[in-house]
Fold this protein.
Amino acid sequence: MRGETKGRRQSGNAPKERAAAAQQSRDPVENFEKWKIKYSRTKSRVKQQRKRNKKPEWQVERDNIGRLLNKYSEMNVQDAVKFSDFPLSKKTIGGLLGAQYRQPTEIQRQTVGFALRGRDVLGAAKTGSGKTLAFLVPVLECLYRQQWTAEDGLGALIISPTRELAYQTYEVLRKVGKNHEFSAGLIIGGKDLQNESERIHRTNIIVCTPGRLLQHMDETCTFHASNLQILVLDEADRILDMGFAETLNAIVENLPRTRQTLLFSATQTKSVKDLARLSLKDPEYVWVHEKAKFSTPATLEQSYVVCELHQKVDLLFSFMRSHLQKKVIVFFACCKEVQYLYRVFCRLRPGIPVLALHGKQQQMKRVEVYDDFVRKKAAVLFATDIAARGLDFPAVNWVLQYDCPEDANTYIHRVGRTARYKEGGEALLILLPSEEKAMLEQLQERKVPISRIQVNPKKLSSVQQKLEAFLAQEKEQKERAQRCFVSYLRSVYLMKNKDIFDVFQLKLPEYARSLGLAMAPKVRFLNKARQQRPGGGAGDSDEELESFRAQLSGSKPGEQASEEDAGGGGDDSSDSDDGEEPGSSAVSLLGQGAHEDEDDDGDLAFLTVKRRDVFEQEGCRFEEEGKAGGENEDEKTTPTKKAEKESKFKEAKKVMKRKLRVNTKMAFTDDGEVVQQWPPIQRAAVPAPDEEETSGINMDEARERLRREDQEFDKEEYRRKVKEKHREKRLKEKAARREASKRHLQESNAGSADESEEELVAYLGGSDDGEEFDPSTLPDPDRHRDSEQDSVSSERGVRKRSRGGSSSDSGEDSAPAPKKKARGREAAGPEALDTGLSLAEDEELVLHLLGHGS
Ligand code: ADP
Ligand code: MG
């Protein structure tokens, strides 16, 4: 702009100067030269003068800020139609416009004014209504007003309940605040702590999850928050709830009291106690949809279906098969369900990419999945409640709640992942018959419009047999299924609302079978819990039950788990599902995300026995014990003892005591009838001696037998692994050969066959969080080669016909030269492929291709 003005002035003065110069001499060239010298002197004089008059930048900004502040008192938010109607800095307006935000949404219009004036605000508005900008704009303006610099340290703190939400908010902040010079940082678990520690003290705006922030407050000596101007809690009710209680209290202790506080959520807290914890000063409560008929977006269509627990897998599969072009999020109750069902659904090849997001994934994987799902046009994301709040995935068509949410609030947040910002969306809730009544009451109370739909049972495709087959093939898969089973039951058991969640109403054998398991794994805590029920046998006291529950959920009774319990905060393996926050994880277990912070070993402890395949009959014991009211010695041990790993000796002792034949697999109904016999998936390597002949326990024999079994298992395992390695190697070699041959075929325009879409989709979906590579997900090289040949020959066939069906020989002879060449190669086959390279070069090529493939 300045450059253009200068240009106009220059051309405007020039004729006058030139006329004056012309009076001194008649030589136009000489005059022109004189004029040029004079003009350049004038120009530099003007420049110098302007420089002297020019205000320093800081002073210009100060004047601007003064003008803005004057406007604060007279601003009328009711009339604000555009963001520029607010007294905002040019930098913020520029950032908003650059990100295509022109007009404020209702929550932004109603809260930005209060927040600019420094008031504490409690903002509530439906999901997808633009709450993020409602706090980001005041944050930027607050620091701008004070001309915050790196030396001032932390000025604004934005706390989110999950890493994904923090990441998303950080990205919006970067976009909208790009014209400001503040430094901003994303402080979430799963990242390099050291790296964060080095920068955190110079960061002006921090977007974080509570646990990681507290960790820095505790461990990073250079970091302090004593200058903090503004604190924001996004999803405030979640951050203020039990799960984050201690972490948040500890954080708030480190913050100055004279700060501004903004709380936002779709389900806002009104609890005076909560607000007192944050020492809010006369907060402004803004609830834009208070009078709205419904608490969910008007563009959201909601329905529910009632089905039995064992029908859910089929229902999900059928749903996916009938929504192949959609973007869907499926919510599950726990990580183990997501882990297991994600794997088997990938193998079932539903025809749509499947992704999984849960708290047990590595941070890199979580970000990768998040980005992947953002990009994809059609995909199904299996997720736990880490994806329930705040996430703004674009264009999600469906939210399917596979498991009943903890409460109506969780329901509202889950369905809020679709129908965002004026878009449409659909939501389907799956309820068990036992959950229907109480859940619907809650939803009605919270003004959620939902109607029941029926599913035609004939349209359900059963996948049970396929799952059984997968489980028979892979031991790991079977273990995952068992963990899924136990974890789900535990999640139901730990739910607070017993009107909705009653674990004793679940039909366990059917549920186990629907997961592909032959029989229900033993779930010890259920036996214990069964005893606590009225009439369920000699019960422990309430405190004991509470203590037992706390143990189940991984915390000490009545208190939050310490950092140590949660694995030191930065440890991914101990991630709670709501993020990674040390300290937050365990208590959140009592709520929705309860079951998420258990680790694999924890789960195994609830399974039958450590080596299920040896003592498979333990699976039967689950039902047996149910019948007997849990009269075995397990029930007498304390919870602490229960957590201990059982020794082989103990296992052997128990088996013998029960006088069951080792390796005999039976399931019993409550009446004691044998309902099923299942051949062992993995038999005991060493046959047991005839137990019937031994009265009492022959410990030496049992010990020796277990030792030999160990050896056998190890050998077997080793053999299996070697075999697998060989198979993988062979596959890779084949794939490399196929690649080379494909390239040649392409070169010669012979028309190579593309990988089928289905295979591609299954392969993409099939990859998992850095775990073992499953060679079976590769397209079969042999089949692929066949299909290449087929495609070439079919092309040939078409051409032959177009030439009037002449004999094949004559047809081929008359084919154009390049085609002939291609056929020649094809006839020779990939083995006889001449790459034109030496043997060593060939090998190098293969290695290179392998490197790409893996
Ligand atoms: P909430 O936090 O209320 O669930 P978000 O802040 O995530 O909602 O915003 C939901 C969507 O609306 C986002 O995609 C965001 O880009 C969009 N959005 C927010 N404010 C505006 C606005 N003023 N103009 C246009 N789009 C907006
Ligand atoms: Mg939000």
